[in-house]
Structures are given as structure tokens and as C-alpha cells.
Write a sequence for this structure.
């Protein structure tokens, strides 16, 4: 349950010294407007501009009681849309001297967690909002200065959620691909130089890998770099690109079906003469079925989040704002600056 005491604890934890920078602020309590009305002033230092004035401190108890009662009991809205409404409502009340945005994002994540049937989430709405900060302030200002219609805000919120999910999908796919790669070559004895270079390639190495680049990254001689590379080629871990001579470069073999130098290695006399003797090892290593099953399970669960997002996006325009939101805005406390 979300309570005032819980919010006080969150905000106090953000400012353990009781200061925001050099300025002393109230912590663990609603703001008191001792230094004047609360004005929302986004923007870089020296280029700030007031775009919204929050309700007076004297109204905070009533406004926050209404918000918390709605948050904890209302079940009339889709839970994902409720997360978007909760964020907008809380940040519009702006009940603290500082930390309102961070706490609003925490409330959003809390609400989204409630909406799912899993204790695990693979995306962060909070991080995505920070990433889209400029657009966030633009739509927030337009909504807070506009009418009671919050459809544009919810549309932006769902788009932001979609970006968070898709970003997490990309990250998760990369993590699983990396895990599968290391499982595939687990039976091949590689040295620390090779492991470091392979990790660089897996993380998105820019340009082509050549012997000279390998030597520079591994801080080794060109001869050592070539021996390392040819070992990886022989074991189906690297593939030689079509260009030959000094421009010869190499790419990762990410799956079994990708054609590699191993397929035509003995037909290339020069490469055969250059290669070094290596100890026999299982070229692809052993693969754990349990690990693959676990990774695939995580992947399928994550894709389920993506489908849920699209379902919510189609439903948002049928939303009606909750009565407490109407009552608060129409009472006149949400005033443009």
C-alpha cells in the first residue's frame, strides 16, 4: 500500500543531509511554501522558465489524501493507464520541496509492477522517462496548462512505455545471444587475450577485426595476434572475410549454420602454411539444455510484455479521467504560471 509515511521515507532517503545541493529543504514532510509558492522550473541553469505553479501547501493534506485513496482503492481503470494517471497526478500536486520527479517515477514503476502477474520486469519506465526528459517536460507542460483532457499525456506515456519495453527487448536479446555464444564454445580452451577480444566483438566492435587491431587491443605482437586468430578460425569461432592479403579481416561466428573458414580451411594454402599447431578440442563446446530453456523462457516472458503494451495502446483513447482528478483540477489549484 502507498501511504504518506512511505512517501516521506522515500523522499527523506533522497536527501539524507536535509539539503538539495546547498539549499536546506523539508524532508520527510510535505512542503510548507516557506519560501513562496512551489513553481515547476525545468531547464538548464541560467535558462530556466516557470511553466507551472503547484497547489498551495495548505491544500496538500487534502489533495494527497484524495490521491492516495484513489491509488490504493480505485480499480475502474486499466492498471497500465492508471500508472500514467498516477504519475501525472502526483507530479502535478508536487507535494515535496524536492525529489517530486524521482518519486513520481517510483510510483509509476510501483503501479506497473502491480499490473503484471510476475515479480520480474525487464524494463525500467523510470530510466526511459529520464532518457526522454525533453519530450517529457513538453507534454507535461502542455497537459498541466491545458484542459481536463489527458489523452495526449497518456498517448505519450504509452509510447514511452513501448520504447522502454523495446529497448529492454534489444538488450535482453543481446544478453541471450552473448550467453548462447559462450555456451557454444565452452569446450574450447581459449586464453585471456582471446576472451577479451571476443567480448569486445560481442559488445559491438566498430569496424573490422584485423591482425594489427587485435595486436593493439591485446597489447601483443602481430605474430601472437595471428596465432590467436588462426586458432579461433580453426575452431569455428571466427570467420575470415572474403578480402585477402593485408586487408584480411575476421568476424564472429554467431551460430552453427554460418559458413566459416573451417569449411574451406585446408583448400587455402597460404592460411594452411601460416596456421599454428593447436591442441584438439571440441570446436563448439557443450551446450546446457537447461540454460537454453531458461533463456528462452525469459525471452518469451519479455515478448508477452510487448504484446501487453500494444493492447493498452489501443485502449487508451477510451479512458475517462477519474473523478478525483476532475475535482482537483476544477477546484482551481492547478494554475499555470
Amino acid at each position: 500500500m502507498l501511504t504518506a509515511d512511505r512517501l516521506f521515507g522515500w523522499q527523506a532517503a533522497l536527501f539524507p543531509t536535509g539539503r538539495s545541493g546547498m539549499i536546506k529543504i523539508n524532508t520527510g514532510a510535505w512542503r510548507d511554501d516557506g519560501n513562496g509558492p512551489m513553481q515547476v522550473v525545468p531547464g538548464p541553469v541560467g535558462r530556466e522558465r516557470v511553466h507551472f505553479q503547484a497547489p498551495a501547501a495548505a491544500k496538500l493534506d487534502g489533495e494527497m489524501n484524495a490521491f492516495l485513496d484513489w491509488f490504493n482503492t480505485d480499480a475502474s481503470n486499466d492498471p497500465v493507464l492508471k500508472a500514467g494517471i498516477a504519475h501525472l497526478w502526483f507530479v502535478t500536486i508536487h507535494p515535496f520541496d524536492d525529489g517530486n520527479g524521482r518519486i513520481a517515477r517510483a510510483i509509476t514503476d510501483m503501479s506497473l509492477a502491480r499490473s503484471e502477474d510476475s515479480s520480474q520486469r525487464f524494463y525500467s519506465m523510470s530510466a526511459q522517462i529520464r532518457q526522454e526528459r525533453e519530450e517529457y517536460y513538453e507534454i507535461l507542460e502542455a497537459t498541466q496548462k491545458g484542459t481536463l483532457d489527458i489523452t495526449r499525456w497518456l498517448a505519450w506515456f504509452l509510447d514511452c512505455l513501448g520504447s522502454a519495453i523495446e529497448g529492454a527487448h534489444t538488450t535482453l536479446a543481446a544478453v541471450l545471444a552473448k550467453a548462447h555464444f559462450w555456451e557454444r564454445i565452452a569446450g574450447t580452451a581459449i586464453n585471456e587475450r582471446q576472451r577479451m577480444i571476443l567480448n569486445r566483438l560481442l559488445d559491438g566492435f566498430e569496424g573490422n577485426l584485423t591482425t594489427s587491431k587485435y595486436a593493439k587491443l591485446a597489447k601483443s605482437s602481430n605474430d601472437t595476434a595471428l596465432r590467436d586468430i588462426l586458432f579461433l578460425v580453426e575452431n569455428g569461432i571466427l570467420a575470415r572475410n572474403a578480402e585477402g592479403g593485408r586487408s584480411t579481416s575476421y568476424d564472429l561466428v554467431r551460430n552453427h549454420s554460418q559458413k566459416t573458414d573451417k569449411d574451406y580451411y585446408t583448400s587455402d594454402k597460404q592460411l594452411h602454411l601460416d596456421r599454428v599447431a593447436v591442441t584438439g578440442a571440441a570446436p563448439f563446446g557443450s551446450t546446457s539444455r537447461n540454460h537454453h530453456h531458461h533463456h528462452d523462457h525469459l525471452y518469451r516472458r519479455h515478448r508477452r510484455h510487448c504484446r501487453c503494451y500494444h493492447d493498452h495502446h489501443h485502449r487508451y483513447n477510451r479512458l475517462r479521467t477519474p473523478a478525483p482528478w476532475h475535482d482537483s483540477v476544477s477546484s482551481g489549484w492547478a494554475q499555470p504560471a
In short: Residues 4-170+320-330 form a domain with the Fic-like fold fold (CATH 1.10.3290.10).
